[in-house]
Queue: 2 jobs
Job 1
Amino acid sequence: MTAAAGRATTVLQALFALLTAVHLGALLVDATTVVHLTKPALMPVLAVWALARGGPWPLPAALLCGCGGDVLLQIGGETAFLAGMGCFAAGHLCYLTLFARAGRGRTAPRTASWAAAGYGAAWLGTVALLWPGLAAHLRLPVAGYSLLLTVMALAALGAGVWTGLGGALFMLSDTLIAAGLADWPRPPVPQFWIMATYTAAQWLLAAGATREGAPRPTPERELVSP
């Protein structure tokens, strides 16, 4: 990475951190206008940062899908909610494309089996608990979306520690959203916690993907005389 590119990534990361802090603060004080202005800007800034760090195309694509989902969920209404869920699902497919190859051979088979069992149990248990509280026409879309999210999080876990933590936080963020759909008790100012875990998840996924996928120097081979 050149010095200019390094400075650009530093500025973009600082801008993302600033936007995130302003957005979360606005949620706490119920500054609706600031919330609506900052939310659509979060993922595009992170996408440009990921590109500046040399991220492959599925990474900015996933982040921009997240931006589409953010905007649609902000609009409100059931149609916009379902369309937003579709945008996030497309983003998870982009992440899967990215992490499926990155995770090959990194996780021992026994560890991978335990991880798959744990994530599968988490998905099944969450869906089973939420099912009675969800509207009938939302049950299958939410179950299908959450399954895709779980598979993405599992692939992220196999690709590295940072991406694995990002996938887990993404699951937590979306579980908080689903809990609202099912009228479950949630922490005070739930949107703050949803966005705090979501922005952290997306940053970890992007940072981990560019960190793990960054070109590494190849050691020179020593010439051995016959």
Note: Residues 7-209 form one domain.
Job 2
Amino acid sequence: MKRLSVIVPALNEAEGIVATLAALADFRRRGHEVIVVDGGSGDGTGDLARGLADSVLAANPGRAIQMNAGARAATGDVLLFLHADSRLPDAADSAVLRGLASGASVWGRFDVSIAASHPLLRLVESMMNLRSRLTHICTGDQAIFVRREAFEAIGGYPVQALMEDVAISARLRRLSAPLCLRERCLTSARRWERGGIMRTIALMWWLRLQYALGVEPERLARAYAEGGH
């Protein structure tokens, strides 16, 4: 049977990491692998993860750095990158493996749902899902997955401070269009709640525009942090 390696980059995620990993217990029982890559948490995230994952690794902070470290340690045929505040659908493993089996796509993502009831967030998630279908650019919130050989062929995640998901999508879509699964990955609403929904929507669109215009990801990461995220 083909195996998934679920790679979870984490930094100061003590509040939710146990619930995230507990939700992956059935995946482990079905023979898949879960790897947590801690970016130097000061709140005990790594300690909480031990026993709930197959491996807990230490790496320098930065999602791209952490996910590449997890990929190097992974033993699965397909790598799936899951944010520490997100939940996969129950049958995510069979959906991914069945979808990739045809060979038409070497990578893909899930539709996303945001864990909040505000109607504006229903619009946000719908736009995220539609945009990625049209542009073949996927976000980390959508739990990007990729065949190991394809990930290695494109050199993994570009090491940059922000928009690493956009950058790897640009690399991977040269190999194939993404497999856009209708099953939904549930992601936390915390960044919208923390920064304000309208303000966060405007900030994310502005950051994407600036990135498309060639602004350095490090500058954008500072703007993102200054925006309260």
Note: The chain is about 45% helix and 20% strand.
